[in-house]
Request: fold
Amino acid sequence: MEPRVIAEGVAGEVARVLIVEDEPNILELLTASLELSGFDTRGAPDARGAVVAVGAFAPDIAVVDVTLPDRSGLELVGDLRGVRPGLPVLFLTARDTVDDRLAGFRAGADDYVTKPFSLEEVVFRLRAILRRSGGDGEEDAGGAEPLRYADLELDEDAHAVRRGGRAVRLSPTEFSLLRYLLLNSGRVVSKSQILERVWGGQTCDTRVVETYVSYLRRKVHAASPGPALIETVRGVGYSLRLAEEERR
Ligand code: CA
Reply:
């Protein structure tokens, strides 16, 4: 089955993306790439322009550079949501440290990409956030495409997980954990990020994450004799990805 185009916002219309970025080359590149992927875009070179555009353009989602000339992108999010409450935000950040990422999440980011980013990744993240936010929290009557990685598949509508076509039975927490890993497949997420996103910051004991990852790993691997998918990245966290040799 062909994956359907899911550059959709509320009520199945083409999703509108506000891009706030002061570097003209990046703005141009993002605009061209997102338009090509089926999004309707509007660019703003600074925070002031973004606040004007959020009212006029009524975006479904915003891509916000963290370092803007007139205001921090982190602070801008509050201004944007003052005009459009609940507006999902994808941050662009040049700083690749866990602390900065967490500051971004505290400021209300739905996700982030680190510069230099691939355009495919931006498109992937935007679609993932839009799917999660489901157009103002309303159920998407058409049903979302399952999240997939290698032979692993997570169907949110049916609340079902399959590996190599075989059902994997997960508890609600394991399901949320796997969903978060799938949304971030191919990259490393820290234990703190997992705690924040899966447990909603209710606990700060990272051993909880370790325990649940081990449950999840056991169940996912018991379902299929395929390659290991949940990798431990020592001192950092976890990554849902195929080992180097499997990727070739
Ligand atoms: Ca910048």
User: Anything to note?
Assistant: DSSP finds nine helices and twelve strands in the chain.
